[in-house]
Structures
1.
Amino acid sequence: MDFKIISNGYVAAKTYLLKDDYNFNLTTTSPEVELNRFNKAIKSASKDLEKSENTYFIIQKMLLTDPILSSEVNDLIKNKKLTAEAALKATIKKYKENLLNSNSKYLQERIYDLEDICQRLINKLINKENNYPTSPFILVCEELLPSILLEHQEYIKGIIAKKAGFMSHGAIMARSLEIPFITTNKEIPNDTTIIIDTRCNILELNPTANDIKRIEDLKQQQINFKVVEHKGMLLLANVFGNEQIQKVKNYGFDGIGLYRTEFIFMHNDRPLSYAEQLNIYTKAVKTLGEKTFCFRTFDIGDDKQIAYIKTHSKGFLNYVNNEDMFEDQIKALINANIYGKMKIMFPMIETKEEFNYLKSWVLTIKKELNNDKPLKIGMMLETKEALEHIYDFTESDFFSIGTNDLSMQLYHLNRDEVKTIPYKYIIDLKNKLKDVVTFCARTNKELSMCGELAALPEATKLFLDIGLKNFSVSPAAFKDLNDTIANYYKKF
Ligand code: PEP
Ligand code: MG
């Protein structure tokens, strides 16, 4: 079956087809009435969002109440005599076109956030009641609006959309909530039992009772499994928000090997203050307790753009160009470390000069804060340059191999291709990493791997062969990693 995977998983449930079947007049003879309707819709929609503490909804409220949006819609109603619905759609269309014309993939993905606002207001204007099921269902839609996922996350067990961006908010959320999400052009009927199984590439309509049972068994196994004996190894988790930490504990991970802090910044429309970050990091380390916790300083640029900062490529310069933001983050991390066992690492390091500069910057801040809690400072090993000069990085306390960026750089792949990297490249990477393993063993430096390849069974086996012992994977991949390790050691 032809589909594109946005978030992996399997599910068997009934579909719920979301229709955008609203009609409205384009023009009006009473602009005053339309202005009134629009202002009421804004008030009512932002009131709905007031209760939520979720960052996504907070941003949605900011966008909704942005005076520029209101004034542009008001102008169209007054001057062109458009109805509130038509004026809103025209304004959002203009914003969307501007975003589409930007070169940034990240900004282009923000189109879904605008769609979300538009849909929210239109629903208010036409008083549309939604009748979402209150039992588990698979959402079938044109495009996934993040707010729908957040509001109905209790019952949405799978998502099928006509289109979706891999880095869109909805996609990121679905992966974080471990909800299978695919895109396909196939027409999917309403209220029909279907199976999505991304591992076996199955999208099946009206499955047999046996097929449904197979999926239910798989789901059960995903939750109930025994963590394999793994003395001398660390099975760690990759997370990008505090919401995932409890799950990490429940699954039985040994700690967190990669906290992608840039997602906290990307979900906001301004830099987070020191106090806000302290609050987030403190909650995170308190939730995880005594387990090891590795925070990566914000890794922005390229595919991870932040609306309020000009960045081009990822790497060192982003810290030098945004000193205040870096210092606020480091201060917040160091002060949160009072409650935990923290490591800090820098992404995209290319030279030892870059690493040493950032390390001494962090140590200076630590000294100014009179903080004497032990803190390991290390780096991601994810650039070609760093890999070629690994012996230079004597000051780094540890390394975490980022196979995503590394394989993009070594084999000229794009991010989507990394997920289906040819086996010959995995073998080549394994050979290139042998020296790193030897260097770390000789110098007593911790070494782990946190890119997508850490969770790909055929790759994990090769990395185990060269003596890699610590793997950091997304919570959804924990069972696969666990099984791979169990099978690997059965051989001996
Ligand atoms: C990597 O490059 O492998 C990595 C883990 O970093 P990210 O995917 O966040 O760029
Ligand atoms: Mg990376």
Note: The longest strand covers residues 10-17.
2.
Amino acid sequence: MTSGKLADKVAVVTGASKGIGAAIARALGAEGASVVVNYASSRADAERVVDSILASGGKAIAVQADVSQSSDVARPFEAALAAFGRLDILVNNAGIYQGAMLSDITEELFHRHFNLNVLGLILATQEAAKRMGANGGSIVNTSSVLSTLSLPGNGVYNATKSAVDGLTRTFAKELAPRKIRVNSVNPGLVETEGLHATGGMQHRDHMAMITPLGRIGQPTDISPGVVFLCSDDSGWMTGESLYLTGGLR
Ligand code: NAP
């Protein structure tokens, strides 16, 4: 028996080797959940996240899977059942973003974004729903403030996150009879490895200026909201979007 808000729960966090997903995995582990830390290619980063959860007295394993591939996506969920015996929580966090103005949008960019941010979320949700038990569970989707805040140069990414909000509302209604709640967190700009890699940090000062609380976010600004949505504290909440943006809308 472990203690914490998520004691004895089992969670899969997709895209948990870096950034927001890594902070979410650590926060769920700190609240007593056993965590499957999913990654696509960064095994060493995923193992570092696992090690930090183990060092704090939690339980975690790293499992590779490209969640946009139907041939891969079951693996983290099978591993959750094999290692920990049940599944209670899915955080659909894996996602990519690359800015492009209308004239620069290519079919490749469109499919790359929709295959992971939208299809990957659907495939992972199917796998989770199959395995959650009679007590239900909680699914949290990492959306974005950009699902509703339309800034130039982000058309395809914005569209994927608008789709995430729509799927959140629809799957919440479909899965409610099984006591599976589905909500999203919608972060503002957050400093992550991905943001650095895609040049997003060049927007830091402007985004901080238009953010009422005056700064961009850190991954640990997002993870407590996910813990809330995974715990019984949000037990009568489903189909909602929790904006964590420093007031930016
Ligand atoms: P990040 O630093 O780039 O990390 C992305 C994570 O996703 C990594 O763990 C990566 O694993 C994993 N991943 C990539 N492709 C995958 C695939 N096909 N299958 C499984 N995992 C995959 O990203 P982030 O900035 O933390 O963003 C995480 C989520 O938050 C995304 O959904 C993003 O859209 C959303 N978000 C980010 C911000 C922001 O400003 N950073 C704001 C709003 C919303 P590998 O390392 O193994 O590749």
Note: The beta strands are 10-13, 34-39, 59-64, 89-92, 137-142, 180-187, 241-244.
